[in-house]
């Protein structure tokens, strides 16, 4: 039996501690080496919606610019379904090495948390935010032939039986929740009519089958200019850059009505900090590019004043959870 003297014990403890620290450092070496070498191959940017959607267009603008900055291609891959949840969950479960990122939205990283009873991912705990790309208000539009000239007319019609109806691109979407918030502000009867696609909803608004809807500026502006739709207000606290003469709903209702759609890029939560920094720097360089900003502006995006991305994300989850609860929207 070997005995250890009291004088030898401190030396042994220091040796064991040194071995533990060395083992921990060795365990980190592969990740450190990988971060230093990042990116050594193409990066995949997941778009959790279909090709041609606003999220897809924004992602492709950013992917092209970031690829030039990083010296590697950033390939956009569409993984649509379940309100963006399928593609978003794919990224949450991907290796945290920076090679798989996602173009997140107000839907995937705020609304879905409360909307889906069994959401497979957590928008806060499972992701590291990379960059706030931009935000866009939605416009409240009616048919070009509608008798409604302003929100006062809309509210008066809602107050008379049988009330009016509003369309959206689906239950629990930002357009649906904006309609529910307007109903709370104006009162009266406003029946929600969900559609599978926003274009179908917009078509029925133009024909007058449904009285109004909230939708993105890029989709409705051509129809407003053609006289097929009429805009009655914008959902953000400040006026839309696309229609600066159009009053906000907050102005017209003397309330705190302020809802915007936004885009933010994310990586899996455990991605090494050096890798996150490279991705964030590439995004910042892209957003500082005048050509990139022109392309994003053409999609109706406006710059946000978001500095603390983590705090912003948490606040958005809480805000939209309250709206989802009040609307009664729920998806299994």
Describe this protein's structure.
This protein has twelve helices and ten strands. With about 325 residues, it is an alpha/beta fold. The strands form two sheets. Strands 2-1-3-10-4 form a five-stranded mixed beta sheet, sandwiched between helices. A five-stranded mixed beta sheet has the order 7-6-8-5-9. β1 (about 45), α2 (about 55-70) and β2 form a beta-alpha-beta unit. The longest helix has 30 residues, at about 10-35. The chain is globular, with a radius of gyration of 24 Å. It starts with 7 loop residues before the first helix and ends in a 5-residue tail after the last helix. Keywords: Lipoprotein, Signal.
Could you give a short description of this structure?
The protein is an alpha/beta fold and 332 residues long. The chain has helices at residues 8-37, 54-70, 85-92, 106-115, 151-158, 174-186, 198-207, 217-225, 249-253, 273-287, 290-298, 309-327, and strands at 43-47, 74-78, 100-105, 127-137, 139-143, 164-168, 190-194, 212-215, 229-234, 260-268.
Strand line-up in the sheet with most strands:
2-1-3-10-4
Order of helices and strands: HEHEHEHEEHEHEHEHEHEHHH
Number of H- or I-type helical stretches: 12
Subunit organisation of the chains: single chain
Which radius of gyration do the C-alpha atoms yield? 24 Å
Q: Can you tell me the residue ranges where pLDDT is under 50 for at least 5 consecutive residues?
A: none
Percent in strands: 15-25%
* CATH T-level fold name of the largest domain: D-Maltodextrin-Binding Protein, domain 2
What is the distance, rounded to the nearest whole angstrom, between the alpha carbons of the first and last residues?
65 Å
- Tell me the CATH architecture of the largest domain: 3-Layer(aba) Sandwich
CATH superfamily of the largest domain: Bordetella uptake gene, domain 1
- Percent helix range: 40-55%
Number of distinct beta strands: 10
Keywords: Lipoprotein, Signal
Family: Belongs to the UPF0065 (bug) family.
Protein name: Lipoprotein
InterPro entries: BUG, Bug_dom1
């Amino acid at each position: 039996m070997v005995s250890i003297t009291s004088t030898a014990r401190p030396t042994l403890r220091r040796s064991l501690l040194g071995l533990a620290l060395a083992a921990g450092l060795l365990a980190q070496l592969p990740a450190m080496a990988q971060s230093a070498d990042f990116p050594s191959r193409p990066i995949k940017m997941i778009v959790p919606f279909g090709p041609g959607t606003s999220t897809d267009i924004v992602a492709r603008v950013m992917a092209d610019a970031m690829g030039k900055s990083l010296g590697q291609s950033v390939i956009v891959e569409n993984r649509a379904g379940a309100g963006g949840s399928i593609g978003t969950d794919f990224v949450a479960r991907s290796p945290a090495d920076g090679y798989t990122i996602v173009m997140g939205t107000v839907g995937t990283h705020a609304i879905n948390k409360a909307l889906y009873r069994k959401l497979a991912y957590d928008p806060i705990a499972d992701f590291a935010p990379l960059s706030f790309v931009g935000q866009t208000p939605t416009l409240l539009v009616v048919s070009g032939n509608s008798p409604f000239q302003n929100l006062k007319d809309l509210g008066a019609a809602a107050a008379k039986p049988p009330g009016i109806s509003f369309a959206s691109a689906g239950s629990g979407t930002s357009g649906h929740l904006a309609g529910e918030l307007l109903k709370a502000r104006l009162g009266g009867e406003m029946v929600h009519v969900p559609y599978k696609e926003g274009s179908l909803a917009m078509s029925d608004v133009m024909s007058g089958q449904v009285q109004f809807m909230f939708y993105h500026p890029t989709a409705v502006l051509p129809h407003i200019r053609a006289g097929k739709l009429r805009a009655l207000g914008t959902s953000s606290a400040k006026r839309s850059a696309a229609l600066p003469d159009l009053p906000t709903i907050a102005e017209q209702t003397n309330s705190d009505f302020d809802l915007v759609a936004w885009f933010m890029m994310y990586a899996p939560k455990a991605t090494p900090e050096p890798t996150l920094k490279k991705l964030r720097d590439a995004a910042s360089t892209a957003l500082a590019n005048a050509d990139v900003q022109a392309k994003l502006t053409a999609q109706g995006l406006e710059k946000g004043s978001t500095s603390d991305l983590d705090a912003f994300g948490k606040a958005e989850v809480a805000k939209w959870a309250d709206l989802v609860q009040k609307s009664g929207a729920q998806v299994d």
